[in-house]
Amino acid sequence: MGRIEDKMEILDLIGRYSHAADGSSPEAYADVFTEDGIFHGRAGQPDELILRGRDKLLAFHRRAIKQRGDSQTRHHQSTTIFLEMGDDRVITRTYLLTTTAAQGVVPMVGLTSIYEDEMVRTPEGWRIGYRKIYPDVSGTLQKIRKN
Hints:
Elements: H1 3-22, H2 26-31, E1 33-41, E2 49-52, H3 54-68, E3 74-85, E4 89-102, E5 105-122, E6 125-135, H4 140-146
Parallel strand pairs: 1-6
Antiparallel strand pairs: 1-2, 3-4, 4-5, 5-6
């Protein structure tokens, strides 16, 4: 597979993450990660969260579904750049914007953050091996760039 095909598959993976995060299938959510994949960040939580492995990712998404109830009003929007491209490992940075909507209310910004991902080629295709979420606060991008 060439670089363009790899990039397209990775962009599709990031899109599938967004749809799965907003969706009602914990399996679809966990499927975008490697078996031992890590989700590291706050994700709207007051405390830092590190989820390691499929079972933790499934449990996290099940809790999220239960918390939001029957009406899904949040939608992930993202843009991605490629920072490093290797044959079996790729580093990306994605801006995240979530919107929320309710009947009769103008949609509003729910959350902004920055994802930095380590994508890993697996026999099933590209998967997220490690996703670090940086809450979007004053100076966040400058701090990331220094590291």
